[in-house]
Fold each of these.
Amino acid sequence: MIVVDRALTVAHNKIVVARVGEHLVLKRVKVRQRKIFLCPDPPGYPVIELRKDDEIWGVVTHCIHRLP
Amino acid sequence: MMRHIFMLVDCAHFYVSCERVFQVALREKPTIILSNNDSRIVALSTEAKRLSLKRGQPLFRCQKIIRDHDVQVFSSNYALYAVMSQRVMGILAEFCPRVEVYSIDEAWAELSGMAIEDLTAFGRTVKARVYQYTGIPVRVAIATSKCLTKIGCEVLKQDERYGDVLDLTAFTEEQLDALLAQVEVEDVWGVGRAYARFLGNYGVHSAKDLKHAEERWIRRHLTVTGARIQAELKGVSCFPLEERRPPKQEIICAKSFGREITSEDELLEAVSTYTARVAEKLREQDGLCGQLTVFIRTNPFAANVPHYANEFTIDLPHPTAFTPQLLKQARAALHAIYRDGFRYAKAGVVLGKITPLHLVQPDLFGEVDLHKRYRQAKLMALVDALNRIFGRGTLVFATQGRHHTWRMRLERLSQRFTTSWQELLTIEG
C-alpha cells in the first residue's frame, strides 16, 4: 500500500502515480532534456514518456509493507 | 459604500468529476450518475449532454442511447462526493477567510478587502490549486454581486470561448450588457419559472432586459426580491455572504424502497433506520426536537393495485434528541397509520419544532431529570462518534434491523475510494 500526496510538486527522481492515457501507472520520474520520462524501478517494464495529454496524478510519499 | 467582490467557484459536472478522479478510464467517455434508487439521471458529463441525455430523465427511457454509445452509468456515491466536496471547500478556505458553501459543488468567497491586484490571475491560481490537490475541475467567476457571479459561471458553462475564469469586474458596462443579453431571464439566480413566464409576457426575456426594466414596475410586480435581483444585476450587492447557514427548522429522511414492502415489521425497520438518521443529524446541529412525523405511501403510479398514503404527527412532551425516545414515538406513529394489504413503496420521518440546545427552557416543575438528560446526551455522543469513526451502521438500535433487503437500489455504485480501507484505489502493472 502506498500513500499519495497530490499537493506535492513533482521533481526529478520522485516516485509518482501518473495517468497515461486511460491508465494509472506507478513509476519514477526522470527529467532528461526537458522531457519527463516515467521509469520503472524493477527491470523488464517499459519506460514511458509523459505526453502532453497525460498527467501526474500524485507524488508517492510512503510505502507500507506487510511483514512476512 | 464599500464595493463587494465575490468569487463563485463552481465544480464542473461534480459527481462525474469525482468518479473520474479515481476511474481515469472514464475520461472523455459519456458518463451519467443516477438518483436514489437508480431511477433518474441526476448528473451527466459534457459528452453525455451531447448525446441529448438530460438531467431528470428516467433511466428506462435512455437505455437505447446508453447501449448505442457505451454510456457509463453509476449510482450516486454520496460517501465519495461528500469527501471530495470537503476537500475542495477546504482549499478555498486556505485562500479566503470568508467562504460560503452554497451547495455540495458551489461556494462563494468574499474577496473585498483582500487587496488582490489581478483578480483573473487569482482565480486561475485557485482553479489550478483545486485541480492539483483534488483532481476536480472548477469554473471561477468574479463579480460585484452574487447574482452576477452566478451568471458568470453559467456563461462559462455554455460558452467555451471564455476559458474557465471570468472576471466581470473588468468588463465595461457595454460588455456586461452584451453578456447579459445572452442569458435568459429564467436562468437568472432567484428568478423562478413562474416569474420568468410573467416577465416574458411583458417583453422581459433576457437578464439584460431585467436589468434595464423600470425599477418601480419591478418592485410592484416582483416585490422586494425582484428589486434586489435587479440591483444585483446592476452590480450592487444585496445578498451578503452567509458564512453560517441558519440551523434547519425541519429535518427529513425519506426514501423509496428498492422493492415494495408488505409487512409492518419491515416497515418498522425502515422507519427506525430513518429515525436514527434524522436524530443523528439533529444532534449534529445541537438541536432538540418537539415533534415527530412518520409518513408511508404506496407507489402512486402503480396500476391496478389499491393505493394508500398517510402520516401521523406526535408532539413530544419534552424536546429531545435521544434516539431511543424518538424510536419509541416513531413506532407508535407507524402503528397508528399502518394498514395491512398494501404494497408500500416509500416511508419518511420528519423532525419538527426544533430548538437549539442552549435555548431550551429549564423545566420549572422538575419533570425533566437533568442528570438523566446528561447521561442520555453522553451516550448519544458516544454512539455518534463510533459511527463516525468506524462507519455508519457500526452501532445500531435493534429495531433498525440488520439485513435491509428493502434498501434502495444502488446497483452501479463505484468504490468508496475515500472512506473505506477495503475499497482504496488499486494500480495494476
Note: Residues 21 and 54 of chain A are 6 Å apart (CA to CA).
Amino acid sequence: MSTRRDEDFTGYVQARLAWLRRVAYLLCQDWQQADDLVQTAITSLYVHWRRASAMESTDGYARTILVRAFLSERRGGWARRVTLAGQLPEAPSVGPDLGDALDVRAALAGLPPRQRATLVLRFYCDLNVDQAARVLGCSAGTVKSQTAKALASMRRALEPAFGAGPVGVEQRGNGAGARGAIARSAKVIGHG
Amino acid sequence: MDEAGARALMERLSATEPPPSRVDIGLARQRGRTLARRRRWALAGAPLLAAAAVVAVVVGIGAIAGAGGGREIPPAAPLTRSVPHAFDPLAPYAAFGWLPKGLPRNVNSPGSTQAELQLMAGTQAKGQFTLTVWARGTCDLDAGQARAYLRRHVHPLLNCVQDAGMGWSDTLSRPAPAIGGHPGFWFAGQALAWEYTPHAWATLYVSRRGTPVRPATTLRVAAHVRFAATAKPAVKFPFQLTGLPASWRMTSVAAWRATGNGLLATTSNELGSTNAVGRVDGPATGTIGQIVITPRKGRCPFFRGSSHRSQRVDLGGVTAIVTHFTGSGFWPYQGLCIPETDGLYVHFLEFPDPGHTGLAFGGVTGVYRHHLRLLGPNPANWTTRPIG
C-alpha cells in the first residue's frame, strides 16, 4: 500500500476520531465497546479507503460502516458480545441528580439495537428519514416506525423517574413532561 | 418523548467526557491490508483461504448450459417473484445460464449468506467469471442515481454491505448496454454491474490470463444469469442438527461446488467463516459456527496455552479434542474437533448467548452427543435440511 494512502487515511481518522467515538458511544453506551466498534469500522474503512476518500461525504461512508458494524455485532456472528442489560453505564459524577442521568442513559441502553441506531442517526447525526434508511439498509417506512417505537419506549422508561415534581407528566400536556425531564437531565449530564 | 427531546438527549449524552482512546489506527491499517489482500486473492480465483470448507453437494442448481456451450439460449426470463431482502443460504438465489463454449463446467461457490451469493465458473486460462448477487437493499445506490452521476461526469460508488461493516464497493466508470432490460455499468476495467431489479444489484468480474475476455461475452453471460433460480433448499450437507430452538437458521454457507454431472466434490478445511447456525432476528444469541464437516480424515489442533486450552474427551468411543477459549474481553467459547468418525472429519465452535451464563446444549460435547447427526461420507445420504 502507498505511503500517501496511509497518510491520508491516518489524517482523516485522527481528525474524525472524536466524532466516531461519540457516535459509537451513543450506540453502545459503553466506551470500551465504542472503541472496539470504531476499531472494526476504521479497519473496514481502510480496505475501502480509495473509494471512501473519493466520495462527497467520507464522513457519511464512515458512519454507515460504523452503524452497520454495530447492528451486525448485535445480530450475531463471531464478534464478542456483551449484554448491556443490567450494566450501569459509565458516567462521571456530575451532581446530586446522577440518578436521573443514569435513568436516561439506561433508557437509551435498553432500546433494541436497531431502534437505538435509528435515534442516533436521526437525532444526533441529523439524518433525514431517507438518509437513515440508506444507512440502516431498510425502507423509509421502517425508519419511521422504529423512530416512533424508540421515542415511545424512551418516554415510557423515563416517565416513572420524572413523574413527580413541577415538570411531571401529569401536570403538563402531551410530551411536555418528557421534555421537562430531558431538560432536567440535560443540566445534570451535559455542559450546557 | 418527542423529536426535540431526543435531540437534546443525544447532545447531552454525547457530551460525556470520554476516557483516553484505545483505538489503534496503525493496527487498523495493518489488518485492513490483510483483508484487502484476501479479497484480491479470492477475486483472482486463487484457492479460498477465507472461505471455509463445508461439505456440500449441490443438486438441482442446473446452472450450466449443456454440452453445446455455444448454443444460443434466450436471455433469462424477467423476475416474476419479488426479490427478497435476505437470501436463504441453502437455496442459492442465482445461477449462470450461459457460459462460453469450452469453459470448464464446474461452478463453485465462494460463499452464500443472507446478503450475498457468489458463484465462480471457469479458469484463469480460459476465462473466469465471478458472479456476485446482492439481496435487495444491501447496496446503497440505484441505477437512476448512477446514471445521473455519470451524466455529470461523476463516478458514483456502488457500496454493498454484508455485515460487520464489511462488504464490497467499487466506483462505476461508465454506462454499459442494458442487461435484460436493466441498466448496466462498467467498472474496474471490464467488470459489469447491473441492477437486476430495483434496489438489488449483481456484479460480474471477468479475468483471463493473456487475452482479455471480450465485453460482448461478458454482457452475454450477464444477460443469461437466472435469478430466483432455486425456490427450495438445494445444498446438501453430511450432517443434521436436531433439537435446536425453532428460531435457529443456517445463516451462511460456504464452499459448495457443483460439477457438470451434479456431484459435489468436497473442499479442505480452511480459515475463516464457514457455515453458521444461529438465530437470525432479534437479540443476539448463541451461535454454532465454523462448522467444517468433510468426508476425509483431518488434523485437530491441540492447544496448551492459558487462553486456549484443549483436552481429549471420550464421546461414546470417539476421541474428540475439546478446546476452551477464554481470551480476555471474550465470553468463553468452545470448539470440538474429531479427526475422523464415520468417515467424516468434524469441527465446530459454539459461542454463548450473552444473556445467559455458560453455553447452551451442554457445550460442544452436548451438541455432539444430543444434537448432531452425522450422515456419513456418501453424498447420496446427505440432506438439504441441515437443521432438522
Note: Chain A has nine helices and no strands.
